[in-house]
Amino acid sequence: MLESVDACPLCQGRERSLLHEGLEDRLYAVPGAWALWSCASCGAGWLDPRPTRESIGRAYGRYQTHASPGGPVRLVRHGPFRALKERRARGFLNATLGHRLSPAWPRFLALRLGSERWRRRLQDLVRHLPPPSVPGTLLLDVGCGNGSFLRLAGLLGYEAEGCEPDPLAVEAARACGQRVYRGTLPCPEIPPGRFEHVTACHVIEHVHDPLAFLIHCREALRPGGRLWIQTPNLAGDGHAFWGRDWRGLEPPRHLTLFTPEALRRVCERAGFEEVRFLPPALDAVEMFRHSLAIRRGQGTGGRKPVLRGPSRRAALRAVRHARTEVTAGESLTVVARAPCADARA
Predict the structure, then answer these.
(1) Residue 306 burial (CB < 10 Å; 0-12/13-18/19+)?
(2) Model confidence over 208-265: pLDDT tens digits?
(3) Strand 195-201, strand 138-142: pairing
């Protein structure tokens, strides 16, 4: 089942242009051809037509969040000298975000080692979270998948809960002992004003009504609570280079795609304050490799191809661009605050 969306889902603007037509799902082979439109007002992109709320679940039958995370909770999950690198990572988070993780390297030593790419990746991994304000500070991860981030938030000292519409992902998360609600916001089991932090990592592009989604996130927060959002950057260098092959498009699961201006505007329309962008992860090389695999018809399986020639040079330019401009990454990362004086009162 499909539905027509003739106005921008974010600003309701009706002036638009066609970005891509005949897009196909080259990751999980969901049937269909999709058109992506661009809003003349805010720059957002959206699918029209698109799957309905009732039918969109068919696009997630083989999705990536069904496996149980399992194993010990670590910041460093792969590679040699893992225990040593884990202590270095903990020391870096202690030094930069104020955590008190142990065992860890001394802060001065952790700050001296590691590339900028490693540092940004690590802060991105923990969603730039500060230490809990009190023991057991409540955090909600919306679209938590198999609960892997809930386990990581627990390592940082949070009492983390999640909500997730995919029943297989919920089952995987609960099997690891995570508290996860089936569904998404608004959730009848989650009272308003409960959480100090709400995070949503690559979720907002999947929802049918992003503005309503953000309003529900604000309502779940305590006054002054913090929202953390990450989503693909339609205005980034990757989409400019790869076009219809860019990994961030992912039709038909990505219903709305954001430019920096579109994301800032919709957060403010939802009632958030202090909306600001955080430095992006320097992951252009990985995203360009995924996009090259899509262009070659390799989907999600196997080792990703090596970048050569123009694609490699473009990826390195994108990395340099993201080092100096917070809205130039392959993804946009935003933090914002719920009003201290509750507007609902």
Answers:
(1) exposed
(2) 999 999 999 999 999 999 999 999 999 999 999 999 999 999 999 999 999 999 999 9
(3) parallel
Asked which of 60, 92, 109 is the last residue of a domain, the reply is: 60
**177 and 197, same structural domain?**
yes
Question: How many Å apart are CA 215 and CA 220, to the nearest integer?
Answer: 9
| Distance in angstroms (rounded) separating the CA atoms of residues 86 and 92 | 10
Q: d(Cα 232, Cα 254) in Å, to the nearest integer?
A: 9
**Token digits for 340?**
């201290």
Number of domains, the chain: 3
Distances (CA, A) of 289 to 86, 292, 294: 27, 5, 9
Is the Cβ–Cβ distance between 319 and 311 less than 8 Å? no
| Entry pTM | 0.94
Q: Which two tokens stand for residue 300?
A: 């999600």
pLDDT tens-place string over residues 78-113: 888 899 999 999 999 999 999 999 999 999 899 888
> Residue 294: inside a domain, yes or no?
yes
